[in-house]
TrEMBL record:
Pfam families in alphabetical order: SRR1 (PF07985)
Chain segments carrying region Disordered: 23-52
Residue ranges constituting the SRR1-like domain according to the UniProt record: 137-329
Family: Belongs to the SRR1 family.
GO terms for cellular component: cytoplasm; nucleus
Organism expressing this protein natively: Equus caballus (Horse)
Domain of life where this protein originates: Eukaryota
InterPro entries: SRR1-like, SRR1L
Name recorded for this polypeptide: SRR1 domain containing
Basic residues bias: start-end ranges: 30-41
C-alpha cells in the first residue's frame, strides 16, 4: 500500500526504455514553449552556448516521449505523415511493377508457406514481410545531431521513431490498379482478407540504422535502448542499398552527403529503390549557382530531372525543425529518360576544391567536433 507522500520507486533506464518502445499516445498539451520559440541552433552545433546540458539516459528518454506526445496532437504530424504515405504508396507500386500475367505475379510470392512461416524462415518479424516476398524495407538516418542537448535534433529523432511506428501503406491502395481477379488471388495467397486495409510497409526499429559522428556515449546508449542500430563507422553517406528498398532520413544535412548517396547508387535499379526524406533538391537547385552545383555536387545536378518531390507541410510550431524538407523518390520512367552520358559518369566525389563542405569526413570527427563546440 502506498501512503500519501511516500517516495515512488526510482525510474531506471530499463523502465524508461521499455516505455519508449510502447506505442505513443497523444496527450494533452503541456504549458511549454513552442518549438518555434526555442533557440535556432543547428543540431550539429548543439553543444554551443544556449544548448541544454546533457542529462542522463532516463531524462533523455522522457524528453523524447514528451516530444512524441506533442507531435501526435499537432496538425503538422498528420499532414506530414499523409505526405510520406502518398509518396510511399507510389513507390511501392513501382517496386511491384505492372505484371503481364498471373503466373508472373504469383512467381513473386512465397507460395510454399504461409505468411507467418515465411516471416519466421527469413528471420523477420511476422507482419513485416512485404508481398514481394524477399523485399524488406530498411531505414537509414544520417546527421540527426546531438538530441540529448538540442531540442531541434530531439524532435527530428522523435519524428523518425513515430514514422517507423505509425507509417502504413495499405494493401488495398497499392493493389488498386490490378485486375480484380489478380487482386483476389494475390490477397488470398498472402493470407489477407479483401476487405482489410492490411499493412505492406512498416519498418521495425531493428531495421533502422542511425549515425552521426557527433553522437555522445549517452546518445548511443539511448538509441540502443530505443531498439535502433547505431552504425559504428562514418559512411559519409556512401551506402549502396544492395537491391533493398531503403528510406533515407537526412534532415538538414550537407549537400555532399546527398551527393555521396546518389553516387553510391548511381543506376536505375538502385535509385528506383530509394526514398529520401531530407533537404529539398529543388531548393538546392534554387539556392546554389548552377556552376557550383554541377562542379561540386554533380550527382545532385544530374538527378534533378529524374525525381519526384513532395514538400513537407509548413507550420509555425515546427518551422525551424522541418523547413526545406521534402520526400523524394525516383520513378523508373524518369530515370530511363536520362541520357546515356548521365549514367556513364561515375567518378567518386572528392570535394578537393569545395569550400564550406558541410559534412564531417571519415577520420576527421574529433577535429570537426572541436570546431563545432567553439561556435
Amino acid at each position: 500500500m502506498t501512503y500519501p507522500g511516500a517516495p515512488r520507486a526510482p525510474l531506471t533506464s530499463e523502465v524508461m526504455a521499455a516505455a519508449a518502445l510502447e506505442p505513443w499516445r497523444a496527450a494533452g498539451p503541456r504549458s511549454r514553449r513552442s518549438a518555434a520559440r526555442r533557440p535556432r541552433r543547428r543540431e550539429a552545433a548543439a553543444r554551443g552556448p544556449g544548448a541544454e546540458p546533457e542529462a542522463n539516459e532516463i531524462v533523455v528518454l522522457r524528453r523524447i516521449r514528451e516530444a512524441g506526445e506533442d507531435l501526435l496532437i499537432s496538425d503538422f504530424w498528420s499532414s506530414a505523415l499523409d505526405t510520406i504515405n502518398r509518396c510511399l504508396t507510389k513507390h511501392l507500386e513501382q517496386l511491384k511493377a505492372p505484371v503481364g500475367s498471373l503466373s508472373e505475379a504469383l512467381g513473386n510470392l512465397h507460395l510454399g508457406s504461409s505468411p507467418g512461416e515465411s516471416a519466421v524462415a527469413t528471420g523477420s518479424i511476422p507482419g513485416d514481410t512485404l508481398a514481394t516476398g524477399s523485399c524488406h524495407w530498411k531505414c537509414v538516418c544520417y546527421g540527426i545531431g546531438n538530441f540529448a542537448t538540442c531540442i531541434i535534433a530531439r524532435i527530428q529523432l522523435t519524428f523518425l521513431l513515430l514514422f517507423l511506428e505509425k507509417c502504413h501503406v495499405s494493401l488495398d491502395s497499392s493493389f488498386s490498379a490490378r485486375p480484380p481477379v489478380l487482386h483476389r488471388v494475390c490477397t488470398r495467397m498472402l493470407g489477407f482478407k479483401q476487405t482489410a486495409r492490411s499493412s505492406l510497409l512498416q519498418i521495425p526499429r531493428s531495421h533502422c540504422r542511425v549515425y552521426d559522428p557527433l553522437f555522445s556515449p549517452l546518445e548511443t546508449a539511448v538509441l540502443q535502448s530505443l531498439g535502433v542500430t547505431v552504425l559504428s563507422e562514418n559512411e559519409e553517406g556512401k551506402r549502396n542499398v544492395g537491391g533493398e528498398p531503403t528510406i533515407f532520413y537526412m534532415l538538414h544535412c550537407g549537400t555532399a552527403l546527398y551527393n555521396n548517396l546518389l553516387w553510391s547508387n548511381w543506376s536505375v535499379e538502385a535509385l528506383s529503390r530509394l526514398v529520401i526524406i531530407g533537404n529539398s533538391f529543388r531548393g538546392l537547385e534554387e539556392r546554389l549557382l548552377t556552376r557550383i552545383l554541377q562542379k561540386n555536387y554533380p550527382y545532385v545536378a544530374k538527378i534533378l530531372k529524374g525525381l519526384e518531390e513532395l514538400e513537407f507541410p509548413q507550420t509555425s510550431q515546427y518551422m525551424d525543425i522541418f523547413n526545406d524538407t521534402s520526400v523524394q523518390w525516383f520513378p523508373v520512367q524518369k530515370l530511363k529518360q536520362l541520357s546515356t552520358d548521365t549514367w556513364a559518369f561515375r567518378d567518386e566525389p572528392d570535394y578537393q576544391d569545395c569550400e564550406d563542405l558541410e559534412i564531417i569526413r571519415n577520420g576527421t570527427q574529433e577535429a570537426s567536433a572541436a570546431d563545432l563546440s567553439s561556435l
